[in-house]
């Protein structure tokens, strides 16, 4: 029988349960997938805590890679035996197998392993829209990236280097600073020891950065905003330390007519053609070795409680996956 991680109430990691589940035959437009690897993302904790509401009881996780077992009526783009990956709703990726809409699947090239796909589909597509869609950054631009040693950070810095973009990254420890440097970060600020905005201004001759990318949220948004150059952009794409508080419009004027956006990956991969285009660029870099995906933490699916505790403690570096 299939098994899955589910939660019946919101709360800490301890609410996650490892349960036997029934997996039905796929209906119209659906497929049944046997998972080979499952992604662990900080966004998973938002569903578990209730920050992102979902009907209960609920499955957990939005990213996995595996093999199509059967397809339902009307599915034409996939067949049994196809290698696929995905990221996005509905919840339920923390499972050995599941049924889900075929429209969310992305064909996985043979050159990319299941573990690699589960470690980078969400993070890689997030990086893709941050660098290729949300703002016209170009060679010679300088940007700030909070959490430069995180899962998105390590992909972002490598991709930015390919584009000729200078990255000033922030991390919490010296050990993470070394990791960020090794993956292409040009300058690293240890935010627990230095004033981020002040250091950014020093590194940019007082100008600031064209774009500040912030996935940490409450603890860092103020330093990110203070680091942006006149008419630049603050991208708040995550809330690892808590939601960003309301920003008064006058703050943006005083900061230099700065723009602010709070994007979501779902809105950049909703169009199937755009999703395929972004995935193709990502997979191309990874398959060619231009971007490396390092899996630094591995867990069994039954160890989801421990995995979430590690994730929220800040002990994790780079990408984490569950083996199935």
Automatic annotation (TrEMBL):
GO molecular function: mRNA 3'-UTR AU-rich region binding; NADPH binding; quinone reductase (NADPH) activity; zinc ion binding
Domain Enoyl reductase (ER): 11-322
Transmembrane residue ranges: none
Cross-referenced SUPFAM superfamilies: GroES-like, NAD(P)-binding Rossmann-fold domains
CDD domains (UniProt xref): QOR2 (cd05286)
Keyword NADP in record: yes
GO cellular component: cytosol
PROSITE patterns: QOR_ZETA_CRYSTAL (PS01162)
Keywords per UniProt: NADP, Oxidoreductase
Domain of life of the organism encoding this protein: Bacteria
Alphabetized Gene3D superfamilies for the sequence: Medium-chain alcohol dehydrogenases, catalytic domain (3.90.180.10), NAD(P)-binding Rossmann-like Domain (3.40.50.720)
Keyword Transmembrane helix: no
Pfam families, per database record: ADH_N (PF08240), ADH_zinc_N (PF00107)
Name of protein: Quinone oxidoreductase
